[in-house]
Amino acid sequence: MRLALFALALAVLAAPLVWRVSAPRPAGPVVDTVVLAERVAMLEVEVETLRDRLETLRSRPAPPADQGAAPLPAPGAPSGAGDFSGFGDLMLLSARREINKGLTLLGIRDLEAVFGQPSAELGQTCAQPTSQRLAGALETRDVGPFRARLVKPALDSLEQVLARVAEDYPDLYAELRTYGGFCARLIRGSADQISRHAFGVAVDVSVGGSIDPMGDGKTQFGLIVLSDYFTEAGWIWGAGFGREDSMHFEVSAELFRRWRDEGLI
Ligand SMILES: [Zn+2]
């Protein structure tokens, strides 16, 4: 009797498992492995970005008491040296309108002419790319201090920028993380304007474990140093936008045109 009860209990407990194992697979369309791989890659980057954000939030330092200009350390100098306060410190940017001189904003129409509409479902959150051309051009790559998902020539350029920073400012390089690369969405707060992140030609960079607040007209010192390298490589810096967005760097029209001429895109 006791044994029978035990067997009955075991059968009840095991029933969902047996059902799950033996349940027939639903018949349906075969999932495209390319699409699946694309989703996995995207999720990987999302997880990594979220991990970075969490790390950033955890290690957010107290606001600096003195937000005056710090002297630029000599290339290669340790960031703790002398009276230099840190790459994550915020400082007021003078002559913001002078930023990005000689570079032109890349038009969304130029991007659409190459990639089409990046995704059929553009909103405020990251959507899957539905443009085959775009999906084929995107790649996830370890660019040194972080992994990024962008179109391939953008990754090549970003890698070169970061390699130069590593040589000149190893301490700054070590503090760089990403806050996002490719993300098929609209510009935050906009109902119809597509973000350049949606085409994999923009990257957000965080410095020193904290995120540069948008629209306050101030910029992290490390981003000011970084911007010289990006500008020279043909990237536009978001610090010069009407609504200051200092952690944002995007490919300029000039750089994009060069890629097209060279058949890279
Ligand atoms: Zn951005």
How would you describe the overall organization of this protein?
This protein has 265 residues and is of the alpha+beta class. It has a single domain, classed as Muramoyl-pentapeptide Carboxypeptidase, domain 2 (2-Layer Sandwich). The chain has 8 helices and 8 strands. It has a 4-stranded antiparallel sheet. Strands 1-6 form a two-stranded antiparallel ribbon. The structure holds zinc ion. Zinc ion binds at residues 197, 202, 204, 248. Residues 197, 202, 204, 248 line the site of zinc ion.
Average pLDDT, rounded to a whole number, is 81
Structural class call reads alpha+beta
The first-to-last residue Cα distance is: 75 Å
- What compounds sit in this structure? zinc ion
Which strands sit side by side, in order, in the main sheet? 4-5-8-7
Taking all Cα atoms into account, the compactness measure Rg is 24 Å
Shape: globular
Give a brief rundown of this model.
The chain has 265 residues and is an alpha+beta fold.
Task: Record keyword descriptors for this entry.
alpha+beta, four-stranded antiparallel β-sheet, Muramoyl-pentapeptide Carboxypeptidase, domain 2, 8 helices, binds zinc ion, globular, 265 residues
